[in-house]
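[step 3/7] fold_predict: job queued, chain A
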Amino acid sequence: MINKDSFKGWKDYIKLSTPSMLMSLIEGGSFELLIIFSGLISVEALAGSVLLNNISFVTYMVPLGVSIAASALIGGELGKSNAREARYLYYCTLIIGVVTGVVLSIIVLLFRESVLGLYTDNEEVIKFATPSVIPLALLIFFDSIQASLKGVFRSVGKQDEAALIILFTFGLIQNTLSPLLAFYYELDLVGLWTGCSVSS
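[step 4/7] structure written:
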């Protein structure tokens, strides 16, 4: 039954959840802007960018799981005042993030055409998107590390700082550098995804 007690503690929840929500909105919105910019280049660029976007989201699921686990485990240890174990778990999270990024990047690089072929059989789109797999692999590597470490920020209640970093990197750097490289320097799809990988 809903009563007055149902609304107690909401201020704390909102204070903790708002920065996390902003991180997701800024990061997700920046990727959506890549799709919009791709459509301004050509139909093939749009199709290629959708492929690259899908691959980046699928590979992101692995470090996202690491992030959730890190948040729960580190937060639990800090709640027990066990800073030493929390620090150990932080280093484990960092190592897992790096290893995950390396493995996923290598897989995407080595099997680039096969991976792109999972999403389409259009050879023209695959050919157009293939050069952009290199910046995508860099994005996957750095994204794996930063996604894993977001869980650490959440576990220590530092979402505000993480949200500011995401705002600066994705919101400012990516949304400025990607169109600059794509349109001004005429690097097209490679430029868009290079700007994205640099911002990670």
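[step 5/7] annotate
The radius of gyration is 19 Å.
Residues 17-199 form one domain.
exit 0
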